[in-house]
Design brief:
This protein has 490 residues and is α/β, with parallel strands linked by helices. Helix content is 40%, strand content 17%.
């Protein structure tokens, strides 16, 4: 969905650099260098732009993945495998049975079903319009083209991440264009338009501008899984494990970056998020964005990284492995205090995206407001009213760009599977009393988000694919597995 034509606009940027995209048949950088000049111009990219740390339009990454799928298919068929891709098949149910799993589907012309020995659910993100309990319609940011209907309106955008920036860029593109020849300016199609928009998030801050960091990341002195194993073994499932782990991280941060540690006091879980964001909140959203962009630009040119940033980026990988061991109370505290900090570190956005938001603010069409933890949405005549920390605001329409929400197995809309299926987030297996010799593996990111808030990036997706493949291979009988695995792994 994030890279698909028809869902996104050419102006929308991905926030993953070329070096961070796990290669399929070839690297993203190698693929781009093989493209002809007209293809690159289609996406506003020149040969000089191509590099390991460059951010590209979402649609260009989509073009890469389409090419990689074609190359994988050709490789498989070249080795004698039967590979069939059925596009425009909407799966409406997955039905476990004693001798396989039946996939029921609909096409534009007919309905049908096919039985498989193994099924992998990899349905990805799902966006649909929702209705707030107040009765207000919360419009989806995708497909982006649908936002064109909000012409000459005032639009509120819930959220402050790249998803919200995407929505703002789409709306701005329908009402004008960005001139990026000398700096960044937004030029409206009409000076008389009533078009206005506001990004509404809890803190009223834009994401950090992308910052430089080396790969591989340096490890932390003590806050790593090996250093925490004994603590986890002794206290798994007990409330207080999070506090003990965070004290270890705090010690490492005081050693690596005493200035940040003195300001944010990371060793204390309670109130950590507010201390982490305090300086930017004091500056205010737009000033913080400008100073942050300037600092990130200087740091990239010097190839310098604030030690606390690298430390937190490494720490979030360790915490990802610790989440299953937390009690319900520790998990609540983690989501409240630590998750916003880690998201701030790893969800930074391209500098070009920040420059565009600043240009929209300079043009007087984009505001940024902090709603606080408690805010209310209510109908207001033909529009909507949002009230929170920044006061009461009214809009013609409200777009919900707060990101993908967690889902359950039942939310995937496969009724038979959801009735008796049980999902194990550790193994990714979906078990059902009717399943015998077949396997059903769930790698659907929205379902996994309920258990792991970090499982969203392309590196996570690659790992999920490998785990799903391993499940299929492990379930084969030894004789069949040997037959399937002659020379090259299937």
């Amino acid at each position: 969905m994030p890279y698909r034509e028809g869902e996104n606009l050419p102006q929308m940027l991905s926030n993953i650099g070329s070096r961070e995209v796990p290669p399929v048949v070839e690297t993203l950088e190698d693929f781009l260098r093989s493209c002809d000049a007209p293809t690159l111009r289609e996406f506003g990219v020149s040969g000089d732009d191509i590099g390991p740390e460059t951010f590209y339009p979402r649609l260009l990454l989509g073009r890469y993945f389409v090419a990689q799928l074609a190359a994988l298919t050709a490789q498989g068929r070249g080795k004698g495998h039967a590979v069939e891709i059925r596009s425009r098949h909407a799966v409406i149910d997955v039905i476990p049975s004693t001798d396989g799993a039946v996939v029921r589907f609909e096409t534009p012309h007919a309905a049908g079903q096919t039985s498989f020995d193994h099924v992998v659910l990899a349905t990805g993100h799902k966006w649909s319009e929702k209705t707030d309990p107040s009765g207000v319609v919360l419009h989806a940011p995708w497909p982006a083209e649908r936002l064109r209907r909000f012409s000459d309106c005032s639009v509120g955008i819930l959220g402050g991440s790249l998803t919200a920036i995407d929505a703002a860029v789409a709306l701005a593109s329908f009402h004008g264009h960005f001139d990026e020849t000398d700096g960044t300016r937004w030029i409206p199609n009409s000076k008389d338009s009533a078009f206005r928009m506001a990004m509404l998030s809890r803190r009223g801050l834009l994401p950090d501008a992308d910052w430089y960091y080396p790969l591989p990341l340096p490890g932390l002195p003590t806050f790593n899984r090996a250093g925490l194993d004994l603590l986890v073994t002794r206290t798994s499932g007990q409330t207080g494990l999070l506090e003990a782990c965070q004290k270890k991280l705090g010690e490492d941060l005081r050693l690596l970056d005493p200035t940040y540690a003195g300001r944010a006091r990371p060793e204390s879980v309670e109130g950590y998020a507010e201390r982490h964001f305090a300086d930017r909140l004091k500056q205010g959203g737009w000033d913080a964005a400008r100073t942050g962009l300037a600092a990130a630009t200087r740091a990239r040119e010097a190839r310098h990284t604030d030690p606390w940033r690298m430390a937190l980026l490494a720490a979030h990988l360790t915490y990802e492995s610790l989440l299953p061991h937390f009690s319900a109370e520790d998990r609540r505290q983690f989501d409240s205090e630590l998750r916003p900090v880690f998201a701030d570190v790893y969800a930074s956005v391209p500098h070009r995206s920040i420059r565009r938001m600043l240009a929209l603010n300079d043009a007087g069409v984009l505001e940024l407001h902090g709603l606080g933890q408690d805010y209310a949405i209510a109908p207001a005549g033909h529009g909507v009213q949002v009230s929170g920390k920044s006061g009461v605001m009214e809009f013609d329409h409200l777009v919900d760009a707060r990101g993908q929400t967690a889902a359950s197995l039942a939310d995937l809309s496969f009724p038979t599977l959801s009735q008796g299926g049980h999902f194990d987030p550790e193994t990714l297996r979906v078990t059902h009393e009717m399943c015998r010799g077949s396997t059903i593996t769930c790698a659907a990111v929205p379902v996994l988000l309920r258990h792991n808030p970090f499982v969203q990036g392309l590196e996570n997706v690659e790992e999920l694919g490998r785990r799903a493949a391993d499940t299929v291979l492990a379930s084969m009988t030894p004789a069949k597995a040997a037959q399937e695995d002659r020379g090259d792994r299937r």
